[in-house]
Amino acid sequence: MEIGEVGRARAIQVQGMLAVLRHVHAHPSTTRAQLARDLGLSRGSATEIVGRLHALRLVDESDAAPTGARGRPTRVVHRHAEGPVVAVVDVSHEGWRLAVAHLGGELDHLRREAHRAPAPEQVLTGVAAALEQVRTAYGTRLRAIGVSVPGTVSHGRLMGAATLGWHDVDVLGGLALASPPPVVVGNDATMAGVAEARRGAAVGAEVALYLTVEVGIGGVLLERGRAATGATGASGEFGHMPFGDPSRACPCGARGCWDLEVDGRALARLLGDPPPAAPRSAADAVFARARQGDHAARAAVDQIARNLGRGVAGLVNALDPQVVTLSGLAMAVLDLAGPALRAAYRTGLMAFRREDAPPLARAAFPADGSLRGAAELAFDVVLSEAGLDDWDKATPRPARTGK
Fold first, then answer.
1. I need a labelling partner for 123 at 20 to 30 A (CA). Which of 240, 295, 296, 343 fits?
2. What pTM was estimated for this model as a whole?
3. How many CB atoms lie within 10 A of CB 114?
4. At 361, is the secondary structure helix, strand, or coil?
5. What does each C-alpha distance from 226 to 26, 199, 250, 301 come to in angstroms?
6. Environment class of residue 260 by beta-carbon count within 10 Å: exposed (0-12), middle (13-18) or buried (19+)?
7. What is the distance of C-alpha 208 from the center of its chain?
8. Which helix (H) or strand (E) holds 300?
């Protein structure tokens, strides 16, 4: 076989291995028969590819549960116990969390820390120390790191996180890891949206819109499970659309931002309270009063529900998603003031959209979506030609025996 033919054969082999590996990641514990059917492989090809991946300690097999059907029982294909992992970190306004993710999306939650001092240098130093412990524990099995941060991210830099007081932070440089594996840095809402599109409420949607309300509104548009992040990586700042009062200044530097109409700051203003130091906690307190029958609290929640619904309609008119997934405080608004939210949403839609309006769905991962999304994006690095080649080089081979 000529050199060119060898290269083509190798490329075909690698693509087949990646297709199977990505399928196992997306469908944990799939059967070998189902894998072959979904990927259009012959049984022989599926068996050969799974064998190669097993030799690389990427997948393993076990007996499927008996079904009573005739014929040779199929095998279940799942992650290898010694396979690759990624470390994922979620930095929030209150603290940070660390987990390890396996092929197939399973998370092992390892650590949670509150911010003792929210200066970026101190926070990132603590995160780096925890990541070094993970690397010590997993060695070469650690193949990538995903970091979720609560602010605008561009080219891997956190350009601004107003509630943390962070501006233009070099996250990778701040971690100062020695010879780190690839690191993916992204906005928390973007990463949570990826989790919903690939494993949650938006699975199967060609185009999905994810929105979350915490302190303001974050979100992302997703096409076939991939985030549309814009020219510089900073798209999804939907909370800074001018859907609010143009006389009201936003900490971002703009005026009339939608952010200021839908969260704890808006509720405080509607109730005549001073601006809250902790908008999320303030919103939770108002929601609790509304559930107990407080009429003023209920009226305030209804108003932010209408503000939310109108803005969602505007985004749907512009972006044309199949489904809108809501998370964070938006889920509580949907529960408490669903009729007001849906009425404003429907009224704001263009007439031709109303008959088959994209549904407003509750997020499947409201608590750890950003960690799960960070894991998905980190595994995108692992499940690539370069990632497979690097793993191949790092995988120890059985010792040969001879006479």
1. 240
2. 0.90
3. 9
4. strand
5. 14, 12, 30, 33
6. buried
7. 13
8. helix 295-319
